[in-house]
């Protein structure tokens, strides 16, 4: 009843109602774009190849998860948001190594806008490269119906245009909707695949390919993983902060006790998204060059999603990106300096540099737990699927990566909605209760 009442209250707040409806509208437009086909591709043969679940087909199925099934249909949004994610990662690394970009990142709102603009330009380049590599791989397997130059140019520019439009949709969601636009686009693509995966599992049980007991166990495992993600995402370490009393005129300010919450998973789902985007680069290049050199074919087979090498690299990258993204979000020196300026201190820790070292120590220790939790949850379902020999669920509802993204994004959106509801109730209490401001006589 509480959940139903909170859901109804969403539509009683005009601002929140607009954000919810706007986000849903953008996701509907994104899903409609996933049904606009590209000409010149043998879609039936492509779907047959991807259903095999090995080699290049396994790589396509892996990419198809984040495009919401549009790669399987070879539609306008086949590349999805992945080029923008790769460009964002590259710009963040370049901002740490190139002095011009590093200085630009420190110039506040203007610098942020310029870096975002450079990211968009880089997204165009990455989209052109990826769409070119995609049609080369499709040509290699005889899936291109028209191999003329005009057909290739039309295919490449159509995919690039689709990627730029998806990027624009994500930016609009971030500005006027709920949650992070990039995460919401990926969320919409993954959730759209869940009904098909559930039906596929049920048909496998009915046709005798899957034991009903194992199917029930898989369902329980998926729910257990989702529950574990929710539990760990809510966990945090509370650092107590005391504020000294200050006399200003005839009034005494301060003296209260507060705390700073450090979440176990400070970086959220972004390390998982970044890891998958980075792994796509060598996968894409090796598969594109496999037609000419046998060496790249062996690399492509080694890095195939679901294999041990891919899983190991995914584990390492998630841990690395967890620390990297946490360092971008939290600056211990700046946090300690702001605390000192506000008259706050941590009991037993000197204000200033000692407090910054303490924050760094806590973030590192918690970050290890959070990074291991993310990496383990991302690989655990893959291990279970390999043990049960169920490749058709690799990109489905039991995928650790998919569950991490879906549950993580859902938690972030729920927290944002809850904040709006609390703010609305607080404002209504002030406007209707005894705390209403008195007129000055």
Q: How would you describe this structure to a colleague?
A:
This protein has 441 residues and is mostly helical. It folds into 2 domains: 14-192, Preprotein translocase SecY subunit, CATH 1.10.3370.10; 200-428, Preprotein translocase SecY subunit, CATH 1.10.3370.10. The protein has helices at 2-10, 14-33, 43-50, 56-66, 70-73, 82-97, 99-105, 108-140, 149-176, 181-191, 194-206, 212-234, 270-289, 294-302, 308-329, 332-341, 353-388, 400-432; strands at residues 236-243, 246-248, 251-253, 257-263, 344-345. The chain has a 3-stranded antiparallel beta sheet with strand order 4-1-5. Strands 2-3 form a two-stranded antiparallel sheet. Strand 2 and strand 3 form a beta hairpin. Helix 8 packs parallel to helix 13 (270-289). Mean pLDDT is 77; it is low at 391-395 and 434-441.
